[in-house]
Amino acid sequence: MMDKHYDAKAAEAKWYPLWEKNGYFHDEPGKGEPYSVVIPPPNVTGILHMGHALNQTIQDILVRWRRMQGRNTLWLPGTDHAGIATQNVVEKALKKEGKRRQDLGREKFLERVWEWKKQYGGTIVHQQRMLGNSTDWQRERFTFDEGCNRAVLKVFKQLFDEGLIYKGNYIVNWCPRCGTALANDEVEHEANHGHFWYIKYPVVGSAKGAAGEPYKDYVMVATTRPETLPGDTAVAVNPKDERYAHLVGKTVILPLTGREIPVISDDYVDREFGTGIVKITPAHDPNDFLVGKRHNLEEINIMTDDAHMNALAGKKYEGMDRWECRKVIVEDLEAGGFLDHIEDLDNQVGHCYRCHEVVESRLSKQWFVKMKPLAEPAIAAVKSGEVKFIPDRWSKIYFNWMENIQDWCISRQLWWGHRIPAYYLGDDIFVEETAEAALAAAKAKTGNDKLTLADLKQDEDVLDTWFSSWLWPFETLGWPEKTKDLDYYYPTCDLVTAQDIIFFWVARMMMAGIHFMKKPPFKNIVIHGIVRAADGSKMSKSKGNSLDPLELIEAYSADALRFSIALITSLECDTKVNKEKFEIGRNFTTKIWNAAKF
Asked: How far apart are CA 410 and CA 164, in angstroms?
């Protein structure tokens, strides 16, 4: 006798553990036509949100459909170790104890992170089960597990040997709060109401002016970042700008410092922007850095890792944070007669994608991957139709980024992550998968058989989190070992993801898959929209307009949540939701129950 009303909680609590226990979501290679999907691994620090609910519901529909067709299915789950996010979580916990990670040292700090991962890192995995995912939990992976670590080290070594990984002193995006470099696509540009400060740089040899006017002849420079002035090593004009042709080759006095710097000409300068004369600060701006290389300019790094001014900024400013220094420098420029006027300016300012701190452009020695050679075959695979974007319009976004791709800064100044397998002996660098292999290489090069591991110093940095997740479709199947899973389930069939990680993840997986496996990692790239609030705004806890999938499951059931979101979703646009829309799913499950009872 069936109950009068459908009890979703009781049904879901009964059946899901039974399905998992009996291995209904698990297949082995060898029988039937394969259908494989890898889940975009959520951060180990994360909790289930509506974006996950939509993304994983679409994947589950595809997987269950193929399973019912008799296909041999694999939906492979896992989590990402999330270098910056996870380290921040543990450091915040330490701060409550009045400690810093430096107080513990690297080894003890990593022990604390693993303890945190063991205690809290499974939260989102448990929540995925509550959602009802038919993932193969027997094959669950973690981007920092032993197998993934082995794959990462092999990839780093191979790319280094191929000349595609190099170490260099370049301008990087630097997050002062996280204390690490960021890749270009990890910087979020936000609208900012700022200012243009117009500053007079006196021309050397010009006569003194009237009171309040230090020199009669000067060049007028407009800048949005006066705090970087102590790092200037030139001012530049466009070679075609006749207004300033007579100045090229002369020198000007850098205000507040008395230092003389040259006037140079370079095509980089936009004649129509500002005054047509720009200050060149090679250690604190990516374009200035390139100008500096072309003109052999000095590179003066005036900031510390946490965005305070160092000794090179001048005794008065040393120790000030960048915003305090900006204020004081502007006051000093005005007092010295160097500040002409200030204009309002609306511009875009880069922020860290994790902590939202304003990012600094900063000269730093980092590891990079040369991307253009890797991008070319990945572009060709989509243009030929071997890999398809669904909807197709996203291929244009993909091509635009891939065809203008920049080298990828892969080193991070963190402790949590895959440590870079580079070992130093004096000025020599040995890149090997293990310390023992590096020691053997060092002995061979130096002819010194008495060297020990203690003589080698491993690179302190770790790799960008995405450097492990770009290998996800094949490292999770056992690569670099030649496993049955890898042979049978690779390449995977469909990748389902959101538009916001096309650059971070999708494009990089394409490059890695083709380079290391000689085949693209998937056949179709299915891009769905973003789940938004009913008014179309982005969901945010701070705005109070976000919906918690777990609360919706509690109120309506997992089936109701997934049926509703599938019903109202279109691949062509974002999905607007409110709580009431999930009554659709609850009503439908009730109808199914009543029909079965009848």
From this structure: 12
Pairing relation of β-strands 388-390 and 524-528? parallel
Q: Which of 535, 585, 532, 593 is nearest to 562 (CA)?
A: 585
Quote the pLDDT of residue 208: 58
Tokens encoding 527:
């891009």
Q: What is the pLDDT of residue 236?
A: 96
3-class secondary-structure state, position 79: strand
**Contact status, residue 38 vs residue 59, Cβ threshold 8 Å:** no
Alpha-carbon gap, residue 31 to 29, rounded angstroms: 6
User: How many other C-beta atoms can be found within 10 angstroms of the C-beta atom of residue 208?
Assistant: 9
* CA–CA dist 317, 227 (Å, integer): 9
| Pairing outcome for strands 218-223 and 187-202 | antiparallel
Tokens of 419: 């440590």
**Cis ω for the linkage preceding 226 (within 30 of 0):** no
Contact 551, 541 (CB under 8 A): no
CB count in 10 Å sphere of residue 451: 16
**Contact residues for 158 (Cβ-Cβ < 8 A; gap 6+):** 516
Cis preceding-peptide flag for 391 (omega within 30 of 0): yes
DSSP 187-244: EEEEEEEEEEEEEEEEBTTPPP-STT-S-SSEEEEEES-GGGGGG--EEEE-TT-GGG
Task: Show the tokens assigned to 89.
Answer: 């979580």
Structure tokens at 98: 């009045």
pTM over 0.85: yes
Q: Round to whole Å and give the CA distance between 380 and 385.
A: 9
**What does the CA dihedral 353, 358, 364, 369 come to, rounded to 10 degrees?**
20
pLDDT of residue 575: 86
The reported pLDDT for the residue numbered 508 is: 97
pLDDT at 216: 61
| Closest residue by Cα to residue 66 from 42, 45, 37 | 37
* Gap between the Cα atoms of 449 and 443, Å rounded: 5
* Strand runs labelled E in 331-482: 339-352, 360-369, 388-390, 408-409, 411-412, 422-425, 428-431, 457-458, 462-463
pLDDT of residue 540: 72
- State residue 571's pLDDT score: 78
- Given a cut of 50, the residues of the chain with pLDDT beneath it are 212
